[in-house]
Amino acid sequence: MGRSCHSARAHARETPVRTLLKNLIALAACAAGLIPTLSLAAPIQLCIDQIATPGTDGRVLGHLPYGDALASDLVAAPPGFALGQCLIQRAAAVDLTRLIRATREVPEIAGTLRAVSCHRSTERQRAVFCGPVGPDKPYHNAMERARVVAPPGYSEHSTGYAVDFGLRPAPGCPDVDACISLTPAGRWLLAHAREYGFELSFPIGNPQKVTWEPWHWRWVGTSSKAPGATTARTIFAQARTSFPAKPAVVDTADSWLRIVRQPPNPFAPAPLPKPNSPTKP
Ligand SMILES: [Zn+2]
């Protein structure tokens, strides 16, 4: 039973007759399923000194919940790509390899693309997230930090489908900084990453209120029929519906639907009759 039904029941124990009747009616409506109820999410311990209660859509500090990838589903990224270690879902690795090969054909950016971060377990995410916050720290409070770092259990990196791209040599632009969008490689990603099944999870001005991350791309497959794409798209279904990526992977079928939805052009000439079709008088 949801929160609204619980509060109605609690009120009913100690209110006058009129309120009691109203609450009884509300309880009956709850029992009949007429009142949409809110889920009662239990508080969760993010860090030793931080507890948070998920919102009604499951988000914590703005981030959606994600489980850990199975170790058996993860493979190493192509040699030379990782700065340190980069494990990624096997299905995504195929397209990542194609993407890296494609960049080698572009003289301006050939050989510069690297992985700053790929799969991060929930425990690793906890270590990253649970640093100190305060007036003399990089982040003044947990909400400010959560705009940049997802809480443990709420990072796309734990799924094994997300990659943080960086550049070597670094062109005067540090890792995980929006300045990558101004570099030739960053611009290439914005123009072409979706051709390899990657989409930008946190676009500029996103309603999720996560900071703009032009380095963070998640894999969903070039089409729903691509091997492994259904699993990835199921995991990211809520994110893709509520907070769409941009650039986003758009299937051929989706493009076709968009064309159909375009309003008719009132100035377009009338179509000519087909050669063999009978003409009306
Ligand atoms: Zn990231």
Automatic annotation (TrEMBL):
Domain called D-alanyl-D-alanine carboxypeptidase-like core: residue spans: 88-221
Gene3D superfamilies, per the entry: 3.30.1380.10
Record-linked SUPFAM superfamilies: Hedgehog/DD-peptidase
InterPro entries on file: DD-CPase-like, VanY-like_core_dom, VanY/YodJ_core_dom, Zn_M74/Hedgehog-like
Domain of life: Bacteria
A Pfam family reported for this protein in Swiss-Prot or TrEMBL: VanY
Gene Ontology terms, MF aspect: peptidase activity
Alphabetical GO biological process terms: proteolysis
PANTHER family from the UniProt entry: D-ALANYL-D-ALANINE CARBOXYPEPTIDASE, PEPTIDOGLYCAN L-ALANYL-D-GLUTAMATE ENDOPEPTIDASE CWLK
UniProt name for this protein: M15 family metallopeptidase
Origin species: Sphingomonas alpina
